[in-house]
Amino acid sequence: xxxxxxxxxxxxxxxxxxxxxxxxNVGLLVGNRYKKVHRIMTALxxxxxxxAQAVEQKADMLVTHHPMIFSAMKRVTDxxxxxxxxxxxxxxxxxxxxxxxxxxxxxxxKVAAEKIGITKDEVLEEVCTxxxxxxxxxxxxxxxxxxxxTVEQLAQVVKDVxxxxxxxxxxxxxxxxxKVAISTGAGKSIAGYALKKGAxxxxxxxxxxxxxxxxxxxxxQIIDAGHYGTEHFMAEYMCTYLKKELGDEVEILQAKExxxxxxx
Length: 264
Fold this sequence. Notes:
By secondary structure, this protein is an alpha/beta fold. It has helices at 4-14, 48-56, 81-91, 101-116, 151-162, 191-196, 209-217, 227-231, 233-246, and strands spanning 27-30, 39-43, 61-64, 95-98, 118-129, 136-150, 168-169, 176-186, 201-205, 221-224, 251-254.
């Protein structure tokens, strides 16, 4: 039977923890690395609902994108909602693993760019150089669409490929564009890189008022598909990857998650 440590090695073959940002918290965050694993659940976030599903489905390991434990903790008690989650994982002998900015750098944005149909792409914010391939790795991607389209048409593509009902768009919907940048999750801090690379449109999430109006004044439009909207595909992607890598040794399940915002 395969162990948690062996599954961690499989995940880190795809997204080594060395690629994570220095401020991040990735890897095994709760549990025993030597425990035997029969069933894995993947999710974007380790919410109460997701952990309840992991318990109900008798998962031995939970793998998420966003780390549940981020800031330093001085105590783990049921007085705190994070503490309660940790206690529930330990009580049910579920090992918990997070792959965050290392996942962003190594696969998340590349897969997102492929979904949109961006070709001849390059990294937006350079983080490091891959020691094995010599390729520059980083956050976000920028490149050309196979064919030009209007911003409105591109917004519909984004909705379709990410399976989301709505996006927010700034500027001129009728403008025809070809050079597009994308950064999954929260893109405010990387919008300037998209501008410097000559992107006509920047696709991301959690964009704020001031960033949007500043980018518009510099002739770059924004398609805000939301943090959840641009990243929830990670859970399905990891399901597919782990099934391919582990075969029939372990059962892989995907948690049921919902966009936290409701549009009225």
